[in-house]
Amino acid sequence: MLDNAKRALRQRMLQERAALSKLERERISEGIYRNLLSDKGLANSKVIFLYCSTNDEIDTDKIAEYCLLSGKTVCAPRCIGHGVMSAHEIKSLSGLVPGKYGIREPKPDSRVVSPDQIDLVLAPCLCADRRGYRLGYGGGYYDRFLEKTSATIVALCASSRLMPLIPAEGHDCRCHKIVTDTEVVVTYEK
Question: Alpha-carbon distance 183 to 190, whole Å?
Answer without folding.
Answer: 19
